[in-house]
Amino acid sequence: MRFGVNYTPSVGWFHHWLDFDLDAVRADLDSIAALGLDHIRVFPLWPYFQPNRTLIRERAVADLVRLVDAAAERGLDVNVDGLQGHLSSFDFLPAWTRTWHRRNLFTDPAVIEGQAAYLRTLAAALADRPNFLGMTLGNEINQFAADPHPDPDRATTDQIDAWLERMLAACEQGAPGRLHLHAEYDATWYQDDQPFTPAQAAQLGAVTAVHSWVFNGTAQRHGRLSVPTEHHAAYLIELSKAWADDPRRPVWLQEVGAPAPLIPAEHAAAFTEATVAHALDCPDLWGITWWCSHDVSRQLADFPELEYGLGLLTNERQPKDTARVLAEAAARKPGPAPVRTTALVVPADPAARSRCAPGGAVFDAYFRLTADGARPTTVLDTRAGNPAHLAARGITEVVTPDQVLPTPQGGTRS
Fold it and tell me: Which DSSP string do the residues of 129-192 spell out, in sequence order?
């Protein structure tokens, strides 16, 4: 079981790549390592590293290598996100993809060549570092592919399939055998018209990544102390398994945090403790990587209010109660969770994903089962009658949402 944190520099946020200060980075990493965590996820900003399609800045790549080496000195492994992409409400896309040079991020051949070269270059620069875990293609890059983005780069699911395969291959070419993956925000699981699909998330790349944020309607509907809010991360972990071909495919809870004001600061530690405990009750969990390491400085303008206080540590690198909760969980070194034997049926049709979203029948049924003391997982409707598939996953009971939820007339659970 891995415990880590998404590294947000305490000085300059991700703009620190413009005037990289290794001493400041070392101090940040010291404060992370002091929590007993074992890895970080880091975010080169794509336009700073590749400002022209055929120019990948050697100095920027060297700074990334220096950061990874500094992490190694402190016993921290590193996952590197490539195409940044989107972070904390801001888009960071190079000028050669926008406005006068507007080209689709997922379908334009020249853009794809540039992206592949960039990912391959970053991976190759780190391939000989023992503490380099591998590449994540980009941070929630599916937000560029559909609404509600104000200027989406629309693509079909087949085109996204081809794009993902090409980008993952570029990472593998640069650093063979490392943990290369892709990661999207929860529209992949919840939004009917998203071209990034659950099947892609659960089948392409070395592990499945899920990002859990309860400001997606969960906390608004159910409140901060509710079963859905405290189990949301576990739900996404188990929901992802319905689409996996490998019954033991690892799932990485790569982003999860305690967003104010839905999770007030005074309740953040309790939310963290509950979220981590329930995630650890999911079999085949690769690890938990909290968002994020350090608060965003109040000297920086225009962030959504919730972004300023998400850190485990303050800008002065002092741990908060949430940091102590995560540190205690890491110190306990939990073992494998037992198999979940009850499976809730979910629709395989990607056009029915909204049934899995907050307010949907699958979502509500899952949390009713959870509140009743069950430990549900999920299974696709196309696999629910397959004895071999169920046996491989240890599933002994299959239920549908209709069997769990009251009838519209107010009938009881069957």
Answer: -TTEEEEEEEESGGGGSSTTSSS-----HHHHHHHHHHHHHHHHHHSTTS--EEE--THHHH-T
Domain-ending residue, one of 273, 298, 332: 332
**Domain limits for position 367:** 342-404
For helices 227-240 and 268-280, what crossing angle results, to 10°? Answer: 30
Percent of the chain with pLDDT over 90: 96
Cross-strand pairs, 193: none
Q: Is residue 337 part of a domain?
A: no
Instruction: Look at residue 412 and tell me whether its pLDDT is greater than 60.
Output: no
Structural domain count of the chain: 2
pLDDT at 410: 36
DSSP string, 344-366: EEE---GGGGGGGSTTSHHHHHH
pLDDT tens sequence across 34-50: 999 999 999 999 999 99
Q: What is the CATH number of the domain that holds 85?
A: 3.20.20.80
**By the 8 A CB rule, do 139 and 81 touch?**
yes
Nearest one of 346, 343, 380 to 361, comparing CA atoms: 346
| Residue 124, amino acid | A
What is the number of alpha carbons within 13 Å of residue 257 lying toward its C-beta? 24
Which residue, among 2, 79, 26, 35, has the nearest Cα to 328 in the 3D structure? Answer: 35
